[in-house]
Amino acid sequence: MPKNARLAASAAVLAITVGIAGCGAVQADAQDDRPLVLTTFSVLADIAANVAGDDLRVESITKPGAEIHGYEPTPGDIRTASQADLIVDNGLSLEAWFAQFVSEVDVPHVVVSEGVEPIDIASDAYAGKPNPHAWMSPQNVQVYVDNLVDAFSDLAPEHADDFAARGAAYQAELQQVRDDLVAELAALPDNARALVTCEGAFSYLARDAGLTEQYIWPVNAEQQATPQQIAQAIEFVHDNDVPAVFCESTVSDRAMQQVVEATGAAFGGILYVDSLSEAGGPVPTYLDLIRHDADTIVGGLSGAS
Ligand SMILES: [Zn+2]
Questions:
Q1: How far is the C-alpha of 67 from the C-alpha of 11, rounded, in Å?
Q2: I want to staple 138 with a disulfide (CB 3.0 to 4.6 A). Which of 46, 131, 174, 218 is the partner?
Q3: Which residues of the chain are modeled with pLDDT < 70?
Q4: Measured in angstroms, how far is the CA atom of residue 172 from the centroid of ligand 1?
Q5: Which residues, by Cβ under 5 Å, contact ligand 1, an ion?
Q6: Given this model, what pLDDT does residue 48 score?
Q7: In whole angstroms, what is the distance from residue 96 CA to residue 251 CA?
Q8: CA–CA dist 150, 291 (Å, integer)
Q9: Alpha carbon of 13 to ligand 1 centroid (Å)
């Protein structure tokens, strides 16, 4: 290789290396002495950032698009977490990996679902356990915000008033998004008021919107979509003449496509629940996620998709 080309190549490698280091989500940044808050997944990071403002650094352990229930933390995650000042997790057994994870780092953590009224999972091996997807009700997220304001005020008492003010402003936005969701879904006719998804992640949203919920499997896990589970979903869609079915962004929709083929229902689209999209995608924030799902559900069930 000629010397110039070699130089250019090594400069390119350097640029790539720097680029990766620069956008690696969680880095110990010598320039940034704000307390580091680490959340377990992207949805919580966005909610927390709305309370934290510029007063704290908020990062997510799992990246947009990641499967969050069965995530396996890397040694790098553990190193990063040991440098955090606060770890934020959802609780309600959402993050199966979390107890082991926090046992390996000596950092305080706050469970944001504390105080939320859980809905129990109705079926399968998880029957009777609380459904972990409490954030799919914006009213529950108002409780998350109260918990974050308290935890952040303990962490950085000098900013307590700012956390409280941002929390109250965000809670007002949550109320608006919740009211819009309920109003939008109230327009669906009685024969289209069933929400059929891959994971049973929509119990809280379905309750808020007055929809009947049906799913193929209760919680994402390695083994999902048994033939019996698919058969039950097919039977439900048949019996209730459900016009459209949905699946979520973080899992394969293969099983739901079988339901579509067997029933003639439309595939109504991709819903977001366990992860935001990347910044340029359809749901870069939690409020976008709720709005996007409401639009997709209404579009699918009213035949407009
Ligand atoms: Zn989930």
A1: 35
A2: 174
A3: 1-30, 222-223, 304-305
A4: 26
A5: 201, 274
A6: 98
A7: 17
A8: 27
A9: 38
